[in-house]
Design goal:
By secondary structure, the protein is an alpha+beta fold. The protein contains 11 helices and 8 strands. Helix content is 45%, strand content 14%. A 5-stranded mixed β-sheet has the order 2-1-8-6-7. A 3-stranded antiparallel β-sheet has the order 3-4-5. Helix 1 runs antiparallel to helix 3 (114-130) and helix 3 (114-130) packs antiparallel against helix 5 (145-162). The longest helix is centred in the N-terminal third of the chain and has 31 residues, at 24-54. It is elongated and about 115 Å long.
């Protein structure tokens, strides 16, 4: 299996494996799926964190706060301070919740109890570790579709534990899990790729669809390549710098130390005083034959 190190600009994304005898179409589709699935998990982690803090979404028509709602929150905050900072526990539809006001006004403020919230946060932490780009690439962990599917399933199970009655269809967590989210004109839509409109670049050239991967990288299944995904028709992605940031810092530090060392040598008069001695004069022999050294140095002006 050819090991593909996928990057964006000079940042590593993940490692994936594709057979050298497989088609470039299959490789592009597989890489695009992994790329989009990682982005989906990132969005899901953010949504689950908000769910653990502030509860489920309100209907979209009720997003935001009215002035009277803000007055209630101020009063609730004063009451919480008087109670010594303890969280307020309320009962809603036969189930207990923590009363935590959402600053954005998008969620109900009925957060799950601390035990369930801790479960959600721990699952989110595990999910983020599973898609941590730099650490996984450094450890040479290959990302697979089954692995990412398992991450989503664990997040789904954690949400089901905290909300056994289910969450509304308009909640962002539910939309991401069901695959019904509408990214619209959000910044996330710019990052998600369409497999039919994606191109794979390696070594400054595009891997044309309809060919075999071995036509570009050879038949050796142990080959490792650094590739990038881009939208078709957008041209080649930005090339990586000649040296990485760490090597550049090391080189600058080396030349700085070298420069400081030269400065110290110039300032050290004890070590360089021999250069003004008579025996160190490279023209002493010539001056002797010309008769210039008998009377000492020749001066062309009175002293």
């Amino acid at each position: 299996m050819v090991l593909i190190h996928l990057k964006k600009n000079d940042a590593s994304l993940f490692l994936a494996q594709c057979p050298a005898a497989g088609s470039t179409d299959d490789a592009i589709d597989a890489l695009v799926h992994l790329h989009n699935e990682r982005l989906r998990i990132e969005r899901l982690c953010v949504a689950v964190e908000d769910l653990a803090k502030y509860g489920v979404f309100k209907p979209y028509a009720q997003h935001g706060y009215q002035p009277e709602d803000l007055d209630k929150f101020v009063a609730a905050g004063d009451a919480e301070e008087e109670a010594g900072g303890q969280e307020q526990i309320v009962t809603h539809e036969g189930r207990e919740y923590r009363k935590v006001a959402d600053p954005t006004g998008r969620r109900t403020g009925l957060a799950p109890l601390a035990t369930y919230a801790a479960t959600l946060e721990a699952t989110v932490a595990e999910a983020r570790d599973a898609i941590a780009a730099k650490q996984r690439v450094a450890a040479k962990h290959v990302t697979t579709a089954d692995e990412l599917r398992g991450v989503v399933d664990r997040l789904r199970a954690a949400v089901a534990i905290a909300y056994p009655m289910g969450i509304p269809e308009y909640d962002s967590v539910r939309e991401i899990l069901d695959g019904t989210e509408d990214l619209g004109e959000t910044i996330h839509a710019k990052e998600v790729l369409d497999a039919a409109n994606a191109a794979l670049w390696w070594a400054g050239k595009e891997l044309v669809r309809g060919k075999l991967l071995s036509d570009y990288v050879g038949r050796n299944d142990k080959t490792t390549i650094i590739a990038k995904l881009a939208r078709r028709g957008m041209g080649a992605p930005m090339r990586e710098p000649v040296m990485d940031e760490a090597a550049q810092r090391e080189m600058m530090a080396f030349y700085y130390r070298k420069q400081e060392e030269l400065k110290r040598l110039e300032d050290d008069e004890d070590d360089t005083s021999y250069t003004s001695s008579a025996w160190a004069n490279p023209r002493a022999l010539k001056s002797t034959f010309q008769g210039l050294s008998a009377g000492g140095n020749v001066a062309f002006r009175p002293r």
